[in-house]
Amino acid sequence: MNISQSICQFQKEEDNMSNRLSLRAGLSRQAQIISFIMIIIIGIISNYIYVLAVYVGPLNETHGWSMNMIVATYSLSMFCEFPAFLFGGMFVNKFGMKKVLTFCGILYGLAILGSGLAPNVITFMICQGILGSLAMYGIFLATLSLINALFPDRKGLVMGILYGSQAAGGAMMAPIASYFIESFNVSMALILQGVIFTVILFVCCLLVTDPTKGDKELQAKIQAEADEAEAAAGQKSESARPTMRWKKALAHPALWLIFLSIIFIQLIGNVLITDISVIAEATYHISEVKSAWLVSAFSIGAGIGGIVIGFISDKIGPYRTTFYVGIIDGILLAILAFAGGDNFMFFAVICIIQGFTYNGITALNPIMATDAYDARDLGTVMAVTGISVIIVGVLGPQFGILLPFAPMMQVCAVSSVIGGILAALAAKSLRKYYKSIGISCVIR
């Protein structure tokens, strides 16, 4: 009976905390729930570049385009992350999250449509690799800012659910894309989905509520109030709003340790995102339909990973979670590499595990930024870490094509462990900095 009462009391305190935050942000509970649902739907649709693996073979067969050029579309998209975050942060501060989200949502759908009308591979790369990717990262930054404002006390879990929804979108989109290609043709599949995406994203963006109305000071205040509420609820012994601005961040080693950690720990994920189908078809001689289901297996793992790792992050912190994931993933990769890569079931297991860790780590990166750096400079900090995503996004796809399977897995295993250690060093450096200036910002 006492245990039940304790659980009920904790739930009541948790609900009261969320209600206080909603009222302080001038936001009704209903608007918060509707916004959450819309963000999830947006997440499901807005990661189409990650289904590129399904299109590589059909585009090559139908148009005669080079596979290397098609795969390079994904690498090209990585170069869009830096400008999208840098200028996107400015636009969010100036125009508000909702306007940026709506504009990017429409642009995203039109870019997919345009890629279906592309007369050559260069136009295809411009549509999906540049326009679509700029829109995708703009959507991501706007939703990240919304989550930070709407759910400051549960951003780890909500961010994990968002990434989980994106992964679920990948799991659904891969077989759907394959069905559209078989039913019509590869170009018409892109055109139809582009039209559908444009309409759905426009409606969802209209229904999202921006509690800050573009006020960056209010966003920082909401996060500070979340910290105070957590302390009052006994979830933190002490807390304070992170104050490190972007100029100090660039001169401090922690940001660059995070930068390197992303490259090392995300290498294997970027190999599999574009090369799953190619590797599976070349190694195991399976059909394009079966290889599409492997993409779905990766996405299913990613969906679970985003939610589970986001939840764990709320409990033990994003830096500590990244450290553990990097170490464990490295050990699992080494075991699977030495167990034998000629077994198709092993490869399927690898796809699921790497989807889990890839999406989980991807969900942790922005949480690390919001926990350690001033909320007003979120776009700038994310732009810097985005450069590391560019680097690994370029290396990963080519790495998977050039190296034999077993050596590639062994290198990625070592790389993952190094990435986890670097994240732990970044957290240690940040704790030392905030302690030196007398601020009790909690870095976990």
What key phrases describe this protein's structure?
84% helix, 0% strand, Growth Hormone, Chain: A, disordered N terminus
Named at the architecture level, the CATH assignment is Up-down Bundle
Q: How many discrete structural domains?
A: 1
User: Under CATH, the topology is which?
Assistant: Growth Hormone, Chain: A
Q: State the order of secondary-structure elements, H for helix, E for strand.
A: HHHHHHHHHHHHHHHHHH
The class by helix and strand makeup works out as: mainly alpha
| Rg estimate, integer Å | 21 Å
Strand content: under 5%
Please state the oligomeric state of the protein chains shown.
single chain
Uncertain regions: pLDDT < 50 for 5+ in a row? 1-25, 233-238
Helix share, percent: over 70%
Shape: globular
Note the total helix count: 18
Please name the fourth-level CATH homologous superfamily: MFS general substrate transporter like domains
CATH class: Mainly Alpha
Distance between the termini: 34 Å
Largest sheet: none
Number of strands: 0
Describe it.
- The chain is mainly α and 444 residues long.
- It has a single domain, classed as Growth Hormone, Chain: A (Up-down Bundle).
- It has helices at residues 2-24, 29-45, 52-63, 67-79, 81-95, 97-116, 121-150, 155-183, 186-207, 216-232, 246-251, 253-265, 267-284, 288-316, 318-339, 344-372, 378-402, 405-436.
- The model is unreliable at 1-25 and 233-238 (pLDDT under 50).
- The protein has 18 helices and no strands.
- It is globular.
